[in-house]
Amino acid sequence: MKNDCRVSVTGEVSEFHGIDWQHKYQEKPVGTLTVERPYECKECGKTFSYLSNLYRHIRTHSGVRPYECKECGKAFSRSSFLTAHLRTHSGEKPYHCTECGKAFSSSSSLTKHIRNHSGERPYECKECGKTFSHVSNLRRHIRAHSGVRPYKCKECGKAFSHFSQLTRHERAHSGEKPYDCKECGKAFSQFSQLTSHRRIHRGDRPYECKECGKAFNQSSHLTSHTRMHSGERPYECKECGKAFSQSSHLSRHIRIHTGERPYECKECGKSFSDNSSFSRHRRTHSGERPYECQECGKAFRSSSSLRKHIRIHSRDSLYNSKEFGKAFSWPSSLTNHIRFTM
Hints:
The protein is α+β, with helices and mostly antiparallel strands. Helices cover about 40% and strands about 15% of the residues. The chain has 13 helices and 22 strands. The protein is globular, with a radius of gyration of 26 Å. This is Zinc finger protein 135-like.
C-alpha cells in the first residue's frame, strides 16, 4: 500500500520567527514522500521525519540564530549548538573515549572520534567512490565535483563551499579571536587552533609519523609531513602545472597569477595575498610580540624571528668552518667568513 501523505503548514507556523514558512515548505503530491520523512525543505529538497527538525533546518537558509552566548556573543540556530559551544568557555568535556581516554565536549564529537579507532567510513561519494567518516566531510567533498560555492564573503567577494569556512574567513577581515587560552591568554579565531595550542602547554603530540617517529600536535601537520617522505604533491596549479603538497600552498600560489590580495589592513590600507603575512603586518601596528624566547625572555612578532634568535643561544652552532675551526649561527656568516679569510 502506498504512503498517502499530504503536508500543509498552518498560519501559526508561518509566523514563527517572522519567516514565511509556507514558501520554504514544499507540498508533495500524494505518495511522493515517505511516512518516515514527510517534511521537505523547498529551498534545497532535504526531507525530515519531524516538523521541528524542518524548522531548525530552515534557519540554515534564513540565517536566523536565536540562541546567543552571553560569554562572547556568538549566536546559533540550535540550542544544542549553544550548549556545546558553552563548553569551549568552561572547558567541560563530559564524553570520554573508552579506547584512548580522550574527552570531548559533545557526544557527536566522540562519535566522530571513535571512527578514527574503528576505521569506519560509512559515507560514500556516488561520483567517485571516496568514503568519509563524517557526513559533513562528504557534503563538502561533493561540492568539489559540482563546484558549488554558495557562501560568499561580503567584504572581498571570496566564495566558499561551506558556511563554517566563510565564518572562519570573515574573522581574517574583522580580526575577531573569540577563543582564549586560559593558560596563557592567547586568543584564536578558530576553536581548532585553540585545541592545538593547548597541546603545546601539555606537551601532547598524539600524531606520530610511522616513517621517522616524529610526532605532531595536529593530524594535518602529520599529513603534510608524510608527504615529505612520499614526495606526494596532489595539488596542481592549472595555470602553470606547478604542484604542491598542501592545498593552502596552492591557494597562495594561484594569487601570483591572479594578483589577488584579499587581506587588507584597515589601519593603513596595505593589502596581502595570504593571511599569515597579514597577521604579521597587523602586529607592526599593535606592537604585539607573541613569540617569546624561554632562554632570555626576548619577544618577537613572528615564529621565524624567534627561531633565528634561538640559534644565538645554541651551544652547538649549525654551520661550522672545518678549515678555520670557527662556528656560526647563519650560513651567510660562514660564507662571509670564508671570503674574508681566503
